[in-house]
Amino acid sequence: MKIVARLKRAGACACILSALIVAQNASALDVAGVKIDETAKVGNQDLKLNGAGIRYKVIFKVYTAALYLADKKTTVPDVLAAPGARRIELVMLRDVSSEDFSRAFMAGIQNNVDRTEKSKIINQLLKFGELFASIPELKKGDVLTTDWIPNVGTQIHFNGKPVSETLPDQVFYNALLKIWLGEKPADGKLKQALLGQAG
């Protein structure tokens, strides 16, 4: 009887352990082999994954992108007006020179931000451009996170290390978001995926 009881307890423990493992695996989304967390902590705020997808250039996968917000939003105006912290996280899927990456970022801003907005954030754009000088190359697996923290500003990290001073204007952060969510996004399918609209 004792052996049977022990076997039952062992079986129950195994079931609980399996359930925990399944729950843990369910907390990450697989995008092109990259594990995308369903939640993120920015500042002191817990954020939820709004959407994630792949940035393609022609037929090549360049990076995965994940957008985190306090609450899920499905339209661009709602994302740009969302209160609280935000995060856009990129994980490289191929090697790209910092010059090419910087050029693509600046082109995305140029294509989606009007002259009036750009005039308000010109100094922050210059500082943003300079940060790539400290990164000679972005390699497969590298992670770039861009966080908006209310009453603090934009903080940018490369593989967990800060690569820029805090940039204070929310207009600047929204300009960055428009690279992927603007009227002329870097990748139309990625825009849909970030908004949680991918089929």
Automatic annotation (TrEMBL):
Leader sequence range is 1-28
Report keywords, A-Z: Isomerase, Signal
Q: What is an example of a GO molecular function annotated in this UniProt entry?
A: intramolecular lyase activity
Is Isomerase included in the keywords of this UniProt record?
yes
Report the InterPro entries cross-referenced here.
Chalcone_isomerase (IPR016087), Chalcone_isomerase_3-sand (IPR016088), Chalcone_isomerase_sf (IPR036298)
**According to the lineage, what is the superkingdom?**
Bacteria
Start and end of every Chalcone isomerase domain?
A: 29-196
- Per its record, how is this protein called by name? Chalcone-flavanone isomerase family protein
Show the taxonomic lineage.
Answer: Bacteria, Pseudomonadati, Pseudomonadota, Betaproteobacteria, Burkholderiales
